[in-house]
Amino acid sequence: MGCRDVHAATVLAFLSGTASVAGLLAAVLLPNWRQMRLYTFNKHERNVTVYTGLWIKCARFDGSRDCVIYDPQWYIAVDQLDLRVLQFALPLSMLTAVSALFLCLIGMCNTAFVSSVPNIKMAKCLVNSAGCHLVAGLLFLLACAICLTPSVWVIFYNNYLNRKYEPVFSFDISVFIAIASAGGLFFTSILLFLWYCACKSLPSPFWQPLYSHAPSMHSYASQPYSARSRLSAIEIDIPVVTHAS
Asked: Membrane spanning segments where (predicted)?
């Protein structure tokens, strides 16, 4: 299928990017970035687990779903550097990914609903589908890097906290969701890059529409003439006169 058609690569890339953004949103909102287990030796009391998120902190007894201590102002008083970095990195990654989705959608709509041979006077103002998908792929790759780096850092910072204090800290499910979402963003960028590389075989300049080389749009260009065609208009047969002896 030609690059001017909306086919499985671009649709799959859009769906993968949407799922990755949804995963990032879940990771941002869930209070499950770090657990702190507090043990008691009193048989009449239960152990307590403190769930730390980016915005809230919740303490629960073992076997209970209700928060004994709920701190909705935790985002102001975060004292862990990795979580503070994530408060800025994950929303920035989501914003970058949403911008990439918007560009991808523009490119898909352009290839689906715009005629294959546009007006030559409007050719320079048209949206380049290949350019939209290429920039979207770069933005998805950037969003992946912004999300993945601090999410992996949580694992190493958790080991640092266990060495510095006591081995009561462990990373929670939000870390895995964020890393999986970063993998989805990377997969989306690879799909768009593959789509662009397939379209690059067309004789289309980098920032012009894919159909800018339609035959009807180049009818105004003068064609080169061969040396024979230039001489054919001025060649004159000159008779050769011979004198008899």
From this structure: 6-30, 88-114, 134-156, 168-196
CA–CA distance, 81 with 83 (Å, rounded to integer): 5
pTM for this model (two decimals): 0.73
Residues paired with residue 58 on neighbouring β-strands, in sequence order: 51, 70
User: Given a cut of 90, is residue 183 above it in pLDDT?
Assistant: yes
What is the rounded distance in angstroms from the CA atom of residue 56 to the CA atom of residue 78?
A: 9
DSSP code string of 100-137: HHHHHHHHHHHHHHS-SS--GGGGGGS--HHHHHHHHH
CB 127 within 8 A of CB 107: yes
Q: Nearest 5°: phi and psi at 38?
A: -110, 115
Element (H, E) at 171: strand 169-171
Q: Residue 219: left (phi > 0), alpha (psi -120 to 50), or beta?
A: alpha
Q: Give the three-state DSSP class for 228.
A: helix
Q: Which of 57-71, 102-116, 210-224 has the lowest mean pLDDT?
A: 210-224
HSE (CB half, 13 Å, CA atoms) of 231? 6
**What is the spatial order of strands in the sheet that 69-71 belongs to?**
69-71, 57-61, 48-52, 34-38, 169-171
Q: Report the distance separating Cα 213 and Cα 107, nearest Å.
A: 18
Residue with tokens 């529409």: 209
Q: How many CB atoms lie within 10 A of CB 68?
A: 12
pLDDT in tens, 20-69: 999 999 999 988 888 888 777 766 677 788 888 888 888 888 777 777 78
CA nearest to 28, candidates 96, 75, 81, 98: 75
